[in-house]
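Worked example

This section walks through a single chain of length 194. The input is the sequence exactly as stored; nothing has been trimmed or padded.
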Amino acid sequence: MDKKSVIEFFNRLAPQWDSDMIRSDEIINIILDNAMIGESQDVLDVACGTGVLIPDYLARKVSSVTGIDISPEMVEIAKKKFPEENVRIICADVEETDPGMLFDRIVVYNALPHFPEPERLVSRLSELLKSGGVLTVAHGMSAEKINNHHSGTASAVSMRLLDAEELAMIFSKHLKVMTVISDDRMYQVAGMKV
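Given that input, the structure is written out below as tokens.
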């Protein structure tokens, strides 16, 4: 999977991304609770797309949200949706870009299969956490549903979603693992930088 194909794929989907979005507020709240997202935090939303979680962060009164995505079309939509001063949207590859600050919380939501080297991603994101910061990787559906979903048109730009225990092993090399969930409703691994 090459990054150019990923960019082209998501640029194509960007115009209808929000209208096609299926979300469960209940599951998103569980994910954000497990990620310990709350007031006065600087949050990095990795592969933010059109910013589907940005209203959820702002509702929790975070200090700032930095969204980063590799797709220029997704970023353009997110920038138009969120003109707030405490929201910054960057078009870049998170594995190769310095966002210019460290973060209290980093969230990778519904995106892990589009990163070909999960270990490299977790290592890089761990470097961007403040001490006591939390990294969470989550999906708003089961691993089985994610893998089935990506077996269609997205197969060229997706990897198999790692078992949560496999991802937790990668996390444990960099962070203290706090949460490991993989059930029929959701998937999440979270860890803290100590």
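What to look for: Strands lie at 42-46, 64-69, 87-91, 103-109, 129-139, 176-182, 187-192.
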